[in-house]
Amino acid sequence: MFLRETVLKKAGVEYRYWRLVKTYWDKKLKKVRHKTVAQLGKLKPEEIRMFKKTISGEAGKNFSWEELMARKSFEYLGVAILDRIWKYWELDKVIANKVVEVLAINRCLSPKSDYQVSDWYKETILPKLLGETVNPTRVYRTLDEIYEQSWKIQEHLHRKIRELKLDDYELIFYDITSSYFEQSECELAKYGLSRDHRRDKKQIILALAVTKKGFPFYWKVFPGNMADTKTVKEFVSELTERFGIKKACLVMDKGMVSNSNLEKIEADEFDYVVTLRRSSIALIADMPWKHLRSIDESNVEKKKEYFQYHTCRAYYKELKRGC
Fold this sequence. Notes:
With 323 residues, this protein is an alpha+beta fold. The protein contains 13 helices and 10 strands.
């Protein structure tokens, strides 16, 4: 290994650049060749002497910690781990546009506005890992692409959860939330029941379904004025038609409960666990109010015989639905 100098002349002025060169034997051409290991640029005389001494094996200058200074640092560990997770799920094979991965990793580590993502990207190791140029224009175009491929992504995640044996679909949790806008021309943005207590703002409804271990495989955006109960029938239909799930227990909160929804769930032969409003509980015909009110510390063991055992802390009784 040795230093090689390159001299360039421009407008009568000489410019000298240095590079570190390695010698190797080319088996095909059967001769010695040279390969540039690193471009060193302009070097001061003392730097040239230091490099030559180091290459020749002579002792170079000893630096103290006070003399060492990092010119620039890049966010690495969190970015590298999430890049590995992205590839573990083989999302890079489903989504060719690498900017999608950049946006996903940014949302996990340091959420920025769409315009600021490209600046954040340059401060991470991602340019080295992905080899992509990211700018605000590409980010905006990518957002439309993500929306168009949402069904494809969901079906891929559903399949990978099974293939990787990470979870089954015996138990599925479904819930919705809302997100409001300060100003928006979005067609889906409507005034509705706000979880953020901002009834004065237009909002959208976000629906999400996950497996019992928390792996997401279904999501959808609904108009902001859609009632919780109206999202359930569409969700149940998607489970059977798109994902091919024929048997599962759906877990939902009381906002999803209605007679028509429960009838739809039962018609598709799904089980369900839902909470009920007090007013709905009162409508259950064979609710054992008398038995429940008679339970106290002195007779609790005897009264438990009325119920069916589930666990040491949970007993249940099947009743007819009357809500």
